[in-house]
User: What shape does this take?
Amino acid sequence: MPDTANTAEFSMAKTREKSKARGKALTLWRRLTQVAMLAVIGQWSFYGIFRCPFIVPFVSCQNCPVITCHGRLFTMFWGFWLAMPLLVLLFGRAFCGWACPGGLVNQLLGKLAPRKLRSPGFLSRLTPYLMYLALAAAIYVWWGMGQPREAIPIRVGDFFASVGLTFEHANLFWLVRTVTVLALVAASLLVANLWCRFACPTGGALELLKRFAIFKVYKTDKCNDCDKCLQVCEMATRPQETNCTNCGDCLGSCPQNAIKLGRPGKQG
Assistant: This one.
């Protein structure tokens, strides 16, 4: 007569192996997608930081005099900001983990950071509020202050020479904005993914909306709070919790097979 306990254990081990294989495959696809999106919209991201004359980049491309930036292609013709709500409705905050060039840079820097902040603490609990504060500040500058142009994006042909001239002739407001952003990104060398986890206004907006997503990486009632998923997560979080970007890196980490990808309530 077969040993029921051994059979169940073997079945669970086999399921874990499948989950690990699925998680590795998903991570590989995510990296490939990140590299592809870096090639597609990476220029827009870097122009937004270094050469965009507006305080809040990426949202006023139709009025921007920097004709070498192809951001207007996404905002005016490709409907980037129209497609974003649809992406959030389908996959939550997946843009941060799968497509954002800034997210990729922060993740690479975070691998060198000595502090991962994977244990719940005061700073971790502040995470959503700091992002919402950054979002509120961006909205105020864009809407309340009328999106001021505080830099002269001088073009001399070479990108880095143009950046130097932009810094040289920019107003103080623009310089403070840019230096602050660069400092927070550089701080990811000390605290993993600090910008994405604590300061990104776009991340704050997506964090507010991701609860309505149809497809998610989520926990089932088998979860025993062992936090193995948190230890492998680049954003130092658990499925469906604050800063979860549906990246899928945690799929093979759970010893209880409690992490799924799909529609919550539709899978066991």
